[in-house]
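User: Show me sequence and structure for the first protein, then do the same for the second.

Assistant: Starting with the first protein.
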Amino acid sequence: MTGPLERKHFTIIAGIVVVSAALLVTYLSWVFVNVIILSMLGAYVLHPLDKRLRQVTKIKNRRITAILTIVVVALVFSAVFVNIIFILGSELAKLQPAVLETDVNSLIDYGIGLMGDYIPDSVQQNMKENLAGSASSALLSAISLLQRLVLGFISNIALFAMELAVVIFMVYYLLIDSENIMQTFIDVIPSNRVEIVKDFLDHLDSIYNSLFNVYLLVCVLTGIIGGLGLMLLGVPYPVMWGAVIAILALLPIVGPGAFYVPASIFYFIVQEPIRAVILLIFGWLFLETIPGNIIRPRLMMQRGQIHPIITLLSFTAPLFVVGAMGIIVGPAAFGFMLALYRTYIGTEPGKPSGAANNGGVVGVVKIVEMTEPDEQVDDVENVLVQEPIEKSVEKPDDKTNDEPTSRD
């Protein structure tokens, strides 16, 4: 029979082995940490689509619906990506530095001509020379940077293809085994902690649904609306610009205004004021106001409501710390902390934090008395509950006080 000291030594050794193995696995997988994060996000975002496909197609085999989900999304993204590559290739093939420099000089002349009555001729000439020199150097730098980006992408295309393949396979297996993984995680939790962990997971799901699913859905809808509107306005390459609008909508500080404001200025410059005004009004109304003030709040009201400050910080602050992956890591970290807070204060999942104290109830506190594993507990439900304190106090009944407490 082993004594307490031997059990303690075994526990220490087992803990060291487990921690060492976890650190080794983390070290070996760290190169693919971005792939793992993208896979988890992709599986979580695609899970509602996968569930919807099972309901519509009546297919019970999860492997088939997972494949269909991935194929549908891959076809959509491939079509948009190929369209953008085709447009960029055709436009870059037409790009001639001399012609581009002439266009820039014409634009500078037009801008200075607008201020011709307010600036002396000598100052105008100096401004033209300085702006022309700066524009030429900026164009050469931009062309050089674009060439380096294209060459870098081509040189790393094999690595990108391998990472994409790993992401697709991980998303596939997460889609078909997500429920089993979650159930296995719950099974290893002590029985007296299962309910609070389920509450935490419900909070986490509602928060992540608002931060990821709803946010991404609104951004995609904004891009679709923008593409359709640009097509009706006669703007060239509406599919590409719709994708750009969707990407800009992901960034709370930037937003779609980074597209439609410069585009309106461009049409003013090229002597198309009517299209410029229509584009400006369309962008403000259909790309900013309606998605941000009507569509997104209504969708978020269905699940966990999140304060706009948290949304702003979660999507912007991490970008300056961890780069592009911050747009995924940031909301995940902020949402995790918010779920812990809502679980701690006892908020009902799917409702904002202020809904914890409702109807005059000050609060409910549960204190669970912990016992050692070797001790026997006579009362299984050994839970001390402090009942909710109501605002109104009932008066005792006089008839009850008059009744005798015992019988002869």
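Switching to the second protein now.
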Amino acid sequence: MKRDPLLKHDSSFVDKAPAVALKETAQAAGRVLAEPVSQWLYSAPRWLPTSHAQTIVPALFGRKPAVRYRRERWDTPDGDFIDVDWLAHDDAARPASTAPLFVLFHGLEGNSDSHYARTMMVAAHARGWHGVVPHFRSCSGPMNRLPRFYHLADSAEVDWILRRLRERHAGPIVAAGVSLGGNVLLHWLCERGTDASIVSAAAAISAPLDVHAGGHAISQGFGMVYTRSFLKSLKKKALAKLDQFPGLYDRHAVLAARTLYEFDNVVTAPLHGFRDTDHYWTTATIRAHLNRIEVPALVLNARNDPFLPERALPSQAEVSASVTLDQPDHGGHVGFMTGPFPGRMDWLSSRVFGYLEHFLPGE
């Protein structure tokens, strides 16, 4: 079993102070990695001093690189559809059919235009890889057909998407998920065990490993800024779904929801077969099952992520030998911006791709 070269010589990396871990691993990593070690060990810039700044600035003000996509619409096994955005290459620079395919599952209310999606697709393009962003239902623009959306434990959706990609792609496949997408991907890895080897490796970025802890964190104080942003989009979709299916749930309860807990109790949980929010969030919490993963997987969470308190992060002893935990002190939620103002957003893609390519055939 290959291990992440950065952590190769010390599986207890995440249980130590970053400065100590750096001293113990940097020399070894430098002998193994093609990229400079400085690109792998995250340090927040001084002009982004707080977890909220490290989260909000990249998402709202980061410079998103230009990416061209080619869209396909796939009919789902249950009679719905999803839109799949493929990374477009010029004919002269089109990768070989056997080049790696990078699959990215987006976060809550995200899509192929999200800052992290564009940044990582640019990284895939630069490496001569294929890339694709499958959208969860309702996230590509048009409303989906069925009385359902998507959720934190939607592993069946990931399964049929990855198996369809496996059928049509000749080369190796690697997958990453961001926030909600990372949580769903981890569910799939835990449930499928060795059957998940249709992907060579995977990465989960800022996944809410303990959904109860994360939900509580963004339902109070400054966390309500994120909640209100999510609810603005989620409520709009929920009301549009009621136009499709009158009486599906209580319109007034949707409008009255002030937290994700309240919204999930009215919409997400009942639409997807859960009794209530507590049942949904308990089922979606993946931390206790990370010891079941058999495919190499990077689980990257900043310790100051405002969406998940540090106390909810697992230790290396709690996960399988196939899992590498990377828990830098800073980075926020899907932030990890570096450099002087106005900052760069390529550290995340360097970390993720540096990990994934280590497990490709022939590497």
